[in-house]
Each structure stands twice: as C-alpha cells, then as structure tokens.
Amino acid sequence: MTLASVNPATGETLKTFAPLTADEIEDRLALADRAFQEHRRTTFATRAAWMNTAADVLDARREEIAQVMTAEMGKTIVAARAEAAKCARAMRFYAEHAEGFLADEPLADPSAVDAKTAMIRWQPLGVVLAVMPWNFPLWQVVRFAAPALMAGNTGLLKHASNVPQTALFLEELYREAGFPPGCFQTLLIGSKQVEGVLRDPRVAAATLTGSEAAGRSVASIAGDEVKKTVLELGGSDAFVVMPSADLDAAVATAVTARVQNNGQSCIAAKRFIVHDAVFDAFADAFTARMRGLTVGDPADEATDVGPLATEQGREDVVELVTDAVRAGATVLCGGETPDGPGWFYPPTVLTDITPDMRVFTEEVFGPVAQLYRVSSAEEAVRIANATTFGLGSAAWTDDADERDLFVDELEAGAVFVNGLVASSPQLPFGGVKRSGYGRELSALGIREFCNAKTVWLA
Asked: Which of 142, 163, 382, 434 could form a disulfide with 388 if both were Cys (CB 3.0 to 4.6 A apart)?
C-alpha cells in the first residue's frame, strides 16, 4: 500500500510514499539494536545536550512543522504552533530531570535485608516500538521519545499512515540534534507490518496511543511475546458542572475542551453533565458559543475549527449523530454536514441523550457535545462513570464536599477541578478501564521502559 499525505481541508493528495521493504525494515531493526548497545552507555549529560539541541532545532523550525501538521491532518495553524512549542518544553524538561528521575534509590535500612548496601537501579530496556496516532502528530511522539531517549532506550516510530511527512520530520529532528544514527527512526509501514516488527526479538517493548481495537491487537501480540506495553486509548471524558461553579468560566472552558484539535482529542470533554439548577443557563450560553465558532481553512489565523482529519472520521461522526437524532436526541446547534470540499463538520450540541443511543457508549471523535441533566452530585458521578472509558474528567464546583466526592469517585486517570484537562511533562498521563494502562510523562513515564533492577551488596 502507498502511504499518502492528504490535505483534509481540500481532499488534495500532497505527497505519496512507498512503504519500507522487508530488507529496509531489517536494516532499521539492526541499526536500532546496535545503537542501543552504545546509547545505553552514554552519560545523562551527553543525552541532555542532544535533547536540548533537539528542542532548539524544533523552536527554530516551528513554523515549518506547524504548516506540515496543518496540511496533513487539519489542525489549526495556531494550535500547530502551540503543539510544537509544547514539545520543545517537554524535551527540555526531560533533559533537566531525567538523571534525577533515574537516580539509584538506596534502601534506608539495608541491614533489614542482611546487606551492606541495597538499592534500585533504573536501566533502559532496549529498542521500543512506538505506534502513534495522527491527532497530535508531534506531541504524542515527543512525549514518548524524550523520556525514552533520555533513559538510554532507542526508538522506532510507526506513525499513523496519514502523517508521513510529520513522521519523517521527527527522525530528521533527532538526527540533526546529534543523536547517533539508529537512536530514533521512522518506519514508513502499514498496520499489517506492525506485528512482525513487534515480534522481532530485538524489540523489547511497545507503546501505543490510538483506538481500543489497535490497543487490543498490540497488547495481544506483546503479551504472546511477553513484552512490556503502555497503552493510551480512547476517552469519553465527563465535564461536570454544579450550581456553585463559576458558570462563565465553566462555559468558556467547556467550549475549548470540546473543540480543541477540531474535537479530535482523547481527553477532550465529550459528555457535559450539568446540575438541573444551572442546566438551562449553561446550555444556552454553551450552545451560543459553539454556534459562534469560525469553521474554515485551518491555515487561516482566524479559524477556530478546521476539518476532521479523514473522510472516514467524518463519516463515523455523522453516523453517531444520525443514530442519536433518530432515537430522539435534540440538536441545539450544528448536526448537518456542510457542502463543499474537505472533511468539515460543524460544532454540534446534542441533548436528551438516552442509553440506547450509540453516543452514550461510544467515543465521538469530532466537535460534538452531549448535554446531560442531573439533580445531584451523586447522579453526576453515576452518569460520568457509566462508560467503559476512563481517561480524564473535569468537575466544576466551589463546594469542598463535592470536590472531594468527584476527586475520589470519578473513574479516570485524571480529575481536574475547575480547569481544562490537559497533559504536561510534570504530571503522569494515562487512563483506567478501556482507556488503557501505564503512564506517560513525569517520573512515572520515564520509568515505564526501564528495568527496576534490585541491587544487593554484602
């Protein structure tokens, strides 16, 4: 199969790429393995110098890669620049903190285990395969690559097939920064070639961000091979609003939370669960703001919402909205596919959602918001948790008891109170239930692909 870079705003094919041959894949596997044997023995200072240089190169080439992302997957140019800047910050974060995160951890009382010295030593696992999605084509990769490379691992990137130019840029970035050949390589391959790479004995572990189906496949193969995996899968995040909340702030954040990245984010708020006392006010203000967003060319600085990344992605959203409307959902705004080129879909608000509708249980990967009316904090928790997903969640309240309830009872990898759910290098990121397992970012993220070796000295 040919890999194609297609502009979702126009449907125009920008570039095509032939997938790697079997011999080319073998060459890259061998190089990654050889590079690991050397890279694992470099000092943290050496790796940090390369990583800081990578951040500098990315800053210098920010506009270039922002335009590539916007052209390949429809991200607004403003969001694309912000994504590149965030990646550079993450690189510098791990350059500064990796050595401390992976420092030896001595046992306070080694005599308790009859030793003079006992400790944990963190050591890299080897070649790690990263299977990454198109929605944050730079950030998703960097938040794996920065800690993995700083830990002494080497990386192989199987990026989404619709962002090959971004994938090749990433390989070039780390090479230009000074990382030796083989430390980070892009594999331009199709999904059917992933299993062979993952089963190769030179590959020690894998990380995947993507759909539940893709996660199950990678986890199954890795399980059969007894290899470590980290999975970050889908989400249908709850956004709870209670009467004590600052309603204006909640509405403004809710709009951003639903349409960021054109609505194509696993941690985008998708289900807005609002107390009856403020439901009508919230619904009116939220719908008005969603209706007022500018949909158009993602390369235009004034655009709020660009196209969906793929034609199939838009069809999936249309199917879910159509199913909900047929089953009795009310459309407060949007809900109709526009005419013209590109894979655009308008900001849409649905209410009167019932459990028999597909949107109640499935992730809607587009700018479609669902509103739910509840009469108590306990009912809000029940509806929020009535999903197989558990990635992020937000709760808006100024009541201390409600805050504690939401923090304790919302089933998610993250709970943000009175704020926008987001990922950052300082905090661990990941989900529970069918949103995956393991953690990226922070100290936990860099340790995921390390061996916690017990050291006992008499």
From this structure: 434
